[in-house]
Amino acid sequence: MRGAENLAMMVLTLVGTAAVASAPARVAVDLPAGTLGNALIKLAEQTGATIGSTDPAVARLRVHSLRGRMGVATALRRLLRGQPARADRIDDATWRIILAPAPPGRLRIPLSPPPAMIVAEDEIVITASKTGTRLSRYAGTASLVSGADLNLAQQGRGSEALIERLPSLNSTHLGSGRNKLFIRGIADSSFNGPSQALVGQYLGDVRLSYNAPDPDISLYDVEAVEVIEGPQGALYGAGSLAGVLRIIPRPVVMGSAQGSLGVGGSVTAHGAVGYDVVAMLNLPLSAHVGGRIVAFSASEGGYIDDQGRKIANVNRTHKGGGRAALRVDIGDWRVDLGAVVQNISTRDGQYADTGLPQLTRSSRIAQPFDNDYLLGSVSVSRDWGAMSLVSTSAVVGQDTDSRYDFTAPGALSPRIFDQHNRIDLFTNETRLSRRDAEGRGWVIGASIIQDDERLTRALGDPASPRRILGVDNSVTEGAIFGEAGFGLAAGVIATVGGRFEYDHLRGRALDRRADVGDPRRNEKTFVPSLSLSWRPSPSLLLYGRYQEGFRPGGLSVTPGSGPPVIQRYHSDNLSSAEFGVKWRPAGARRFDTTFTLSHGHWSNIQADLVDMAGLPFTQNIGSGRIHGAEISFGWRPFTGVAVSAAAFANDSRLSNPVAALSSERRYELPNIAHFGASGRVVFSQALAGDWRVESDAHAYYVGHSRLGVGSELDLLQGNYFLTGASLRLSNGRWGLSLDGDNLLNSRGTMFALGNPFDVAAGRQSVPPRPRTIRIGVDVHF
User: Fold this and answer.
1) CATH architecture of 2-99
2) Between β-strands 492-510 and 85-91, what pairing exists: parallel, antiparallel or unpaired?
3) pLDDT at position 245, please?
């Protein structure tokens, strides 16, 4: 067997030698997924280079597909990214591949790229487009945060680390695991209820949630995070009104054993200490099977003091869990099994009361929160050149528990409000696509979703609260969708797509009988997508895009003059037109910029609200319009230095309110500031030997916004400025890091809600976490 492997590598060398001796600088490269040995043979044939190796272990390494126009050096670098091998250049047309330790890098855990992340000459492809379109050619607003730009401290912070980088991405700040995400001024309310999320969240191709708060998946061992602005109804269906956030995990590295361990300790001004620990292990289980597991535990020290109970630092948060992946290669087919488990528990709310000393409130009881999340998935895929078939199924179980202080002012005995939300979700999407980096690809597919949410509530004495009216909402969705790009003329591409979806909705009251009319109904929805882009030069792209999105209706507990009742809320729809410019000069490519203008019309808006007593309910509040503008740029003035900045402006109004809110016509939609901006400077410099120093300084500003719609919730929030910096010294195996957040110790009002039962009094605020310093060490083997 060993002789056969050596013979194979000799043939590989001979094939390369027989090719044309002088390889062209850039050629069309098309390499299928498979073994590195086969990929190198095809690369030698396509580029005319001589590529050889005498180590049979090289031939057995598994690699992903690679396509685009590039030179042999670029192709080898991308093929070997994350592999325990390197390419040594002998002369202009001759290369030797040898086994070697994985190259050092900022990620510290080297990996091969995921199968859909196809690169075309130093440009990243937006995989969330489902057709492999280059970022510079994508006719829409999209952002990508590389895992290489997230240090361990930021990875543990999850969604908050993304909000620092992307001004158009925002959220409420109730706390980790209970926030709602918003993109581009599309925000319905500050409260959590049965309405579907505005942002579709995915781990690879797996849908993470449906009508739950942001699960705040930690970003450890992540290749990249993509955010595409919405609505994205044609490709992603219901629940993508504001857009899609897609986390791309690092895949199993076949044929390679790798591991890492990171440990950190932190201290918060005016607060308690914290810690974080994360470990990763990648193991080859056989020639065609590999596994990867990530486990972590982190604790953020509290910083809010409760004057009423005379307890300091009450809001400590613990977050723990992990991910596991198993990859099996069966010929040309690939099977990926995955699991995610995560628990977030907060001992108490993270809000303060105005009129008391800073970072202080007064309450009668603790108000803890818990979010237990469990996901299992299976994905089957195969590539045929530029064609791909992917079928992904997942099951999600999520439990959230909240407790609030419901004690009336001056009452002798405390009262509590408990809410438990149990969500069971099944999803499947099967799609066939043809990738094209220029935007001429296509995709067709079908999806099925089954979601059941059981919301129960209790009110009264903390020892034995009494169950009150709850609700059970169930949705079954079936959809077919497609999108295709067509070249109309030189540099002009039109994209046309659409989605037809059928929803079967069922609802019922819990804990007591309630008249809900017909508890079952069916809804049929079609949403189109259209775009037209023109590339007058290789550096410039002009585009226009029209998209729609929607959310199905449901049942909600609604207050009235008497006891609460069950009422129906209806589906809503958002249509949006976007016009943009992308400029990326050729040559040195030291500068790039994008600018977009957008207009959205949102009809029959669903909103989670609270009544005058603070009890939550959901209703349609009318129609609104949203105007937005965004700009971003990147600049690389010197080797090892990168500067980036972004900003957005937003104006929204409830333009046609329902009769009950007819006096609220002048109110803006909640939670999205009129203006926001961020900036970042990154520096990297090689030192003696293998040592390297890296630094990162960033700042972002969030302007004023309103808590909610209506005079009772017309509370000002926002207008804060946060800064951070990090310093890292590493040699590829060991790393030492120093991180600081909120360095200026800003005390703004991120969010004006902590307890819904006292929010109308306007005494609450959610301050930023005070200055926090973390020291960490990591090792890789």
Assistant:
1) 3-Layer(bab) Sandwich (3.55)
2) unpaired
3) 96
Cβ neighbours of 495 (radius 10 Å): 26
- Strand partners for 474: 452, 506
The pLDDT, as a whole number, for residue 6 is: 43
Of 205, 698, 670, 195, residue with least CA distance to 455: 195
State residue 774's pLDDT score: 98
Based on its alpha-carbon atoms, the radius of gyration of the chain, rounded to whole angstroms, reads 27
CA distance 395 to 321: 17
Kindly provide the b/e burial profile for residues 577-606, where b requires at least 16 CB atoms within 10 angstroms of the residue's own CB. ebebebbbeeeeeeebbbebebebbbbbbb
Specify the CATH number of the domain 125-243: 2.170.130.10
SS (H, E, C) 38-94: HHHHHHHHHHCCEEECCCHHHHHCEECCEEEEECHHHHHHHHCCCCCEEEEEEECCE
Contacts of 310 (CB under 8 A, 6+ apart): none
What ranges make up the beta strands (E) of 658-746?
675-686, 692-706, 716-730, 734-741
Let me know: does 383 contact 32? Beta carbons within 8 Å: yes
pLDDT (tens digit per residue) in 336-377: 999 999 999 999 999 999 989 999 999 999 999 999 999 999
Helices then strands, counting H and E runs in the chain, come out as: 7, 46
Q: Which of 641, 639, 542, 631 is nearest to 592 (CA)?
A: 631
Query: In sequence order, which residues have a C-beta less than 8 Å from that of residue 774 and are 6 or more positions away?
Result: 153, 264, 265, 266, 276, 737, 738, 739, 740
Q: In this structure, what token pair is assigned to residue 84? A: 């325990």
Q: What is the model's pLDDT at position 107? A: 32
Domain limits, the chain: 2-99, 125-243, 244-780
The answer to whether domain 125-243 and domain 244-780 are alike in fold is no
Stretches where the chain sits below pLDDT 70 are 1-25, 53-57, 60, 82, 90-93, 99-124, 512-519, 558-565, 586-589, 612-615, 662-666
d(CA 387, CA 32): 10
Give the tens place of pLDDT for each residue, 200-219: 999 999 999 988 899 999 99
Interatomic CA distance for residues 506 and 520, integer angstroms: 4
- CATH architecture classification, 244-780: Beta Barrel (2.40)
Q: What is the per-residue DSSP string for 256-310?
A: --EEEEEEEEEEETTS-EEEEEEEEEEEEEETTEEEEEEEEEEEEPP--EETTTT
What is the phi/psi pair of residue 18, to 5°?
Answer: -75, -15
Using DSSP, state whether 346 is helix, strand or coil.
Answer: strand
Residues 6+ apart with CB under 8 A from 60: 35, 36, 37, 255, 287
